[in-house]
Design brief:
972 residues, 29 helices, five-stranded mixed beta sheet, globular, 18% strand, alpha+beta, eight-stranded mixed beta sheet
Length: 972
C-alpha cells in the first residue's frame, strides 16, 4: 500500500516486546480453524449506505469444538449454521479440484521463466511441489488455485451446500456472541463439531461507512460508489472472516448491483445475469481467486469508464469515473511496462488472469495492492500525460510500480504476520524507484531516493523511533506500523544490500525466495536466508542487525595509518538521552549542554554494516573498530552511490579533500548524501572538526552554489529554509535571505529563460532557484512571479510554464481576497485531481488572519473530502507564520475535526503539531492530546513532542553560531 510521500508518521522506540505497561492484550484468533474457501454474495444499497451479505466459509477443524471464533466488526448477524461433511466427497473437494487445475495452468505459464531457479536444486524442487498442488502447511503456505497469465482460472463449484449427499448430520444453528473490543464473533453450537471439514453459512448485514475503511461509501458530484479497503484489519467490516494474513483461502465473489453499474473484483467476470426479477439489479460473478489473504480481497461498484491494453498476454484496464477516464492513459502505459519488467525481473509470470486499476474519488492511502484489482487515490493514478507537472507524473509512475511490485511481493507471497509488514512495504518502496527509473532514466529518481534517505535517517536518529520489525497485535498497533520505518528505512536497507551483493545476484535471491513460497506465507528469515544462500555473503547478519534494532549507525573514520584507515561504528542520535535533565524555559533563548544520546558501551548496539568506499569496493564492518583501505584517488568517500544506511563522520583533513572535489568527484546522489550527513551532525551538536556548526553547513551550501544539479541545490537550500524557520530570529532570517539573494541571484540570472528542447535538469534548476529567491524576497524574482501569476489568472499561457506553480505560491502570502476566491473556486471545482489538490495547498499560503480562518473553516465545511480535510490544517500548523492561529483553531474545533477524521487523518494533525519550537507550545500539545487521545497515534505523539524538543535544543545551540557566521559575511 502506498502512502503520501513524506506524510507518514514515525514511531516510538519499541522492542519486539511491544508498547509496555498498559498495552491492550493481543487480539489474535484462538486458532484450531483453517479456512479453505469463501463464497461471498454482496448486495450493496448505495442510496441507503448499507449492504447485505450471504457467505459460505469452508473450514477445516483441527479438533472437535463447540465454538468457532472469527473476526467481525460493525456486522449484524442473521442466521448462522454449520454443516459437517464426510471427508473425500466433502465441501473442499471442489476447492481441491480447482486448486489442482489452476496450479497446473500456472506451472505451464511459468515453465519457461522458472528456469532461473535451476541453479539451486532445492529451490527448484520446492517450486515444482508448490505448483503441482501440494497441500498447505501449518503456516498457511503451499498450493492453492492460482491463475497464470493465460487466465486459466475457473469459478469454484458453487453447488456444494447443506443439501450435499455426503452431509454427516443435520445443519446446526449457531448462537453468535460479539466482542466489539476485540472485533470478534464467536459461534457457539449445541453439539461439538467433529475435527475435519465443516461449512459455515452466514447471513449478515453491514453499513457503507464514511471512514474509508472496510466496505465504504465514496461520492462524486453526481453519485455514490461502493469501494473496499481492507488492509490491514478491515476485511472483517465487509464479511465475517479469519482476518489474519497467514490464514489464506480461495474466494468466490458475487455482487448484486444496480442495473447500469459496473463491478470489479480480484478476478475476471465469468457471468453477468439480470435479476433478481423486478429488482432493478444484475448479478456479477467472478472467477475463483488463488489462495490469498483476506486483506487482499477487493470489489468496487459504480459507473466507471476504462482505457484498455494488454501486456504479455494479460488484459489491463485503467478505470476512473467517466469524466476523468482520459487521465488514465499514462497509468495504463506505466502498468504495461511494469508488468513486462516484473515478469522478467522476478522470473515468475504475473500470477493473475487480468489486472484492473481503479481510481476512486475517496481513498485514504495512495493506493492498495489488492490482488488483480489495484485501487488508487485519484491523484496517484490520474494525470494529464501531455501537460501534467513532472512531480505528478513521477507520483503516478512510482505508485503504479509500487502496487504492481506487491502483486508478487506481498500478494503472491505474503508475510505470515504484520510484524514483517516492512518486508512488503520496504521492498515495494525500493522497487518503485528501480522500475520507474528503468522506464524513465531522465527523471533522476536516484536523486529523489537520496533526498528521501536523508529524511528517513533524520527521523530514525531521533529518540522516538522503533525497530523495523516490531511486535504488533491489536489493530491500532498494526496501523501504526505503516510509517517511514516500514517504508523508507526498510526500502533503504534493501537497496543497500542490493548495492553490496550486486544487482543480478540480488535478483536471483528474490526469485529464490518467491519460488519457494508461491501462494503461501513467509518470514523475514526466509527472505534473507535465500539472499545469503544465493550470494554466499552474510546478508542474513547484515539484514538482521538493521531489522531487529532501532536507530542509525554512525561510521567514523580516523586518520590514515600504514595499515589503512581506522573506522568505528556507534549509534548516531540527534536527541539527548531521555534520562538527561530537561532544559528549562530559559532554554529557548539561552544556552544549554546538549548531551548525545549514545548508549553505554555495555548496551550499545552494533550493526553489521557493508561500508562501500567510492572506487574501492565494500568492507563489512561488524565491530566497534576496524580498518578500511586508504584511497589512492586523493580523497576518501565512504558511501559510494549514497546507498549506505548510515551517517559518516570524517577527520578535518578528509573533509577538506572531499570539499575540494565535491562537484567533480561525487555524483549528485553522493552530494545529496554528504549534505545530509553534515546537516545531521550539526543537529546532533557534534564537535567533530569542521562539521558541527550551522556556519560550517552554510559554508558547504555556498561551496555548492554553482552545482548544475537541481536536486543537490534543492537539498542544500531547503535546509537553509529550515535554518531560517528553526534557528534564526526574525532579524537574522532577513540577513540570511540577503545572503541567499547575493549568492544565488547571479546563478539564476546566468541560466536565462526557457529554450526549446532544453535539458530537463536545466529547467528544473531554474525553477528551484526561482522559488528559493522568491522566498528570499528577491525583488526581480517577485516581480517576475507577479507577472506570471497575472498571466495565469487571465487565462493566458505563462511565458515560462515551468515557473507557473512556483509563481502562484510566491504571490499568495500577500494575496488579496479576489485572488483567494479564484483559488477557492479551483479547490472546489477543478476537474484535474492534481490541480485540485494543488489549489487546496495554495489556500494555505495566504497569511492574512481572515483568510487563514477561511481556509481552516473550508477544511471542515464538507466541501473538502474526508481524505483531504486534514491537509490544510496540517500545512498551516507546519508554517511558522500561521501555526499559532491554526493551533487555536484545532483546540476550539477538535470535536468537528474528530467527526470528519478517517482512520489516519487524526494522526496527521498530531504529527503536524510537532512543528512548534517552544517549551510552552510543547506543553500545550502534550496536554491537549493527553486529554483528547487520537486513535493509532501513541507513537506519532511521542515523535511530535521529541521534534519540538529537538528544535528547541537546536535553536539554543546554533543561534549564536548563526549570528557569528552572519557577522562574518560581507556587508550588503
Amino acid at each position: 500500500m502506498a502512502f503520501w510521500r513524506g506524510a507518514v508518521a514515525a514511531g516510538v522506540v519499541l522492542g519486539l516486546g511491544g508498547a509496555g505497561a498498559g498495552r491492550v492484550e493481543a487480539q489474535r484468533l484462538p486458532g484450531g480453524v483453517r479456512p479453505v474457501h469463501y463464497s461471498l454474495t454482496i448486495t450493496p444499497d448505495l442510496g441507503k449506505a448499507t449492504f447485505a451479505g450471504q457467505e459460505t466459509i469452508e473450514v477445516v477443524l483441527a479438533a472437535p469444538t463447540k465454538t468457532i471464533t472469527l473476526n467481525a466488526a460493525e456486522i449484524g448477524f442473521g442466521a448462522v449454521t454449520a454443516t459437517v461433511w464426510n471427508g473425500a466427497g466433502g465441501a473442499t473437494a471442489a476447492a481441491t479440484a480447482t486448486a489442482t487445475a489452476t496450479a497446473t495452468a500456472t506451472a505451464k505459464a511459468n515453465a519457461g521463466i522458472l528456469r532461473f531457479a535451476q541453479n539451486d536444486k532445492q529451490e527448484q524442487r520446492a517450486t515444482t511441489e508448490i505448483l503441482s498442488g501440494a497441500q498447505n502447511d501449518d503456516r498457511g503456505g503451499g498450493a492453492s488455485g492460482g491463475g497464470g497469465a493465460d487466465g486459466g482460472v475457473t469459478s469454484h463449484d458453487r453447488s456444494a451446500s447443506v443439501g450435499h449427499p455426503d452431509v454427516s448430520g443435520e445443519a446446526q444453528a449457531a448462537v453468535v456472541t460479539l466482542d466489539a473490543a476485540k472485533e470478534q464473533a464467536t459461534l457457539t453450537f449445541a453439539r461439538a463439531l467433529p475435527a475435519g471439514e465443516v461449512t459455515l453459512e452466514i447471513a449478515y448485514t453491514g453499513i457503507l461507512n464514511d471512514k474509508l475503511r472496510g466496505f465504504y461509501l465514496s461520492r462524486s458530484k453526481t453519485r455514490s460508489y461502493g469501494v473496499t479497503q481492507f488492509e490491514a484489519t478491515d476485511a472483517r467490516r465487509a464479511f465475517p472472516c479469519f482476518d489474519e494474513p497467514a490464514l489464506k483461502a480461495t474466494f468466490d465473489v458475487s455482487l448484486i448491483v444496480d442495473t447500469g453499474d459496473t463491478a470489479f473484483s480480484n478476478m475476471k467476470m465469468v457471468r453477468d445475469t439480470p435479476g433478481p426479477e423486478g429488482s432493478g439489479k444484475h448479478r456479477v460473478d467472478f472467477a475463483t481467486t488463488p489462495k490469498m489473504s483476506t486483506y487482499l480481497v477487493a470489489w468496487v461498484v459504480g459507473d466507471f469508464a476504462c482505457t484498455e491494453g494488454k501486456q504479455d498476454g494479460v488484459p489491463i484496464r485503467a478505470c476512473a469515473t467517466p469524466d476523468k477516464v482520459e487521465m488514465t492513459r499514462f497509468a495504463l502505459d506505466a502498468a504495461k511496462w511494469d508488468l513486462h519488467y516484473y515478469d522478467k525481473y522476478f522470473g515468475i509470470r504475473y500470477p493473475m488472469g487480468k489486472l484492473d486499476m481503479v481510481a476512486v474519488p475517496d481513498f485514504e492511502a495512495g493506493a492498495m495492492e489488492n490482488f488483480g484489482c489495484i485501487t488508487f487515490r485519484e491523484t496517484e493514478m490520474l494525470v494529464d500525460e501531455k501537460n501534467g507537472a513532472l512531480p505528478a507524473l513521477k507520483a503516478v509512475s512510482t505508485t503504479v510500480a509500487h502496487e504492481m511490485a506487491h502483486q508478487w511481493f506481498g500478494d503472491l507471497v505474503t508475510p505470515a504476520w504484520w510484524d514483517n509488514l516492512w518486508l512488503n512495504e520496504g521492498f515495494a518502496t525500493w522497487m518503485e524507484s528501480k522500475a520507474a527509473a528503468k522506464r524513465e532514466p531522465r527523471w533522476n529518481l536516484d536523486q529523489d531516493e537520496a533526498m528521501d534517505l536523508n529524511h528517513t535517517m533524520d527521523e530514525d536518529a531521533s529518540r522516538t523511533t522503533r525497530a523495523i520489525r516490531t511486535r504488533a497485535e491489536t489493530p491500532a498497533e498494526i496501523n501504526e506500523l505503516f510509517d517511514d520505518i516500514a517504508y523508507g528505512k526498510a526500502g533503504a536497507v534493501i537497496g543497500m544490500v542490493e548495492s553490496w551483493v550486486g544487482e543480478e545476484v540480488f535478483r536471483r535471491g528474490v526469485h529464490a525466495y518467491l519460488a519457494a513460497h508461491l501462494y503461501g506465507n513467509a518470514t523475514a528469515e526466509d527472505f534473507w536466508d535465500a539472499q545469503a544462500r544465493v550470494s554466499g555473503l552474510p546478508v542474513d547478519k547484515v539484514m538482521r542487525s538493521f531489522v531487529d534494532q532501532a536507530g542509525v549507525p554512525l561510521v567514523t573514520l580516523g586518520t590514515a595509518a600504514p595499515g589503512g584507515v581506522p573506522v568505528g561504528e556507534s549509534r548516531f542520535s540527534i536527541s539527548p538521552d531521555p534520562q538527561a535533565e530537561p532544559c528549562g524555559a530559559n532554554f529557548e533563548g539561552g544556552s544549554c549542554v546538549l548531551p548525545m544520546n549514545l548508549p553505554a558501551k555495555a548496551t550499545a548496539p552494533l550493526w553489521t554494516v557493508p561500508v562501500c568506499l567510492k572506487g574501492e569496493g565494500c568492507k563489512v564492518l561488524s565491530s566497534e573498530k576496524g580498518m578500511l583501505p586508504d584511497s589512492p584517488a586523493g580523497f576518501l568517500y565512504a558511501d559510494a552511490g549514497d546507498k549506505g544506511y548510515y551517517r559518516t563522520a570524517y577527520t578535518a583533513e578528509q573533509w577538506k579533500a572531499i570539499e575540494a572535489s565535491v562537484e567533480t568527484g561525487l555524483t549528485p546522489p553522493e552530494r545529496i548524501g554528504l549534505l545530509g550527513d553534515r546537516w545531521a551532525l550539526m543537529r546532533a551538536g557534534s564537535t567533530v572538526a569542521g562539521q558541527g556548526t550551522v556556519g560550517d553547513f552554510l559554508d558547504l551550501v555556498l561551496a555548492l552554489k554553482t552545482d548544475p544539479n537541481a536536486s543537490a541545490i534543492d537539498s542544500a537550500l531547503s535546509r537553509v529554509d529550515a535554518i531560517e524557520a528553526q534557528i534564526a530570529t526574525e532579524a537574522e532570517g532577513e540577513r540570511l535571505q540577503g545572503v541567499v539573494r547575493r549568492e544565488f541571484g547571479p546563478v539564476y540570472a546566468a541560466l536565462g529563460g526557457p529554450a526549446k528542447h532544453e535539458p530537463y535538469e536545466h529547467a528544473q534548476l531554474r525553477e528551484t532557484l526561482f522559488e528559493v529567491l522568491g522566498e528570499a524576497k528577491d525583488p526581480a524574482v517577485l516581480a517576475e512571479a507577479e507577472s506570471l501569476t497575472r498571466q495565469l489568472l487571465a487565462g493566458q499561457k505563462p511565458a515560462d510554464p515551468m515557473l507557473a506553480d512556483a509563481a502562484v505560491l510566491l504571490t499568495t502570502p500577500s494575496g488579496d481576497a479576489e485572488t483567494y476566491e479564484r483559488m477557492l473556486r479551483a479547490a472546489r471545482n477543478a476537474g484535474d485531481p492534481d490541480f485540485k489538490r494543488a489549489a487546496l495547498d495554495v489556500l494555505t499560503r495566504f497569511q492574512s488572519r481572515a483568510l487563514v480562518e477561511r481556509t481552516l473553516e473550508f477544511a471542515l465545511s464538507g466541501e473538502v473530502r474526508n481524505q483531504d480535510s486534514w491537509v490544510p490544517i496540517a500545512l498551516l500548523l507546519e508554517r511558522r507564520e500561521t501555526q499559532d492561529q491554526a493551533w487555536e483553531f484545532v483546540v476550539e474545533h477538535w470535536e468537528e475535526i474528530e467527526q470528519r477524521a478517517t482512520e489516519n487523518s487524526g494522526a496527521r494533525i498530531v504529527e503536524a503539531a510537532g512543528s512548534f519550537c517552544t517549551v510552552a507550545k510543547r506543553d500545550a500539545v502534550a496536554g491537549f492530546f493527553a486529554a483528547h487521545p487520537v486513535e493509532s497515534s501513541q507513537r506519532t505523539l511521542a515523535k511530535a513532542l521529541d521534534s519540538i524538543d529537538d528544535c528547541i535544543r537546536l535553536r539554543a545551540a546554533q543561534e549564536p553560531e548563526l549570528r557569528q557566521w552572519l557577522d562574518a559575511q560581507p556587508r550588503q
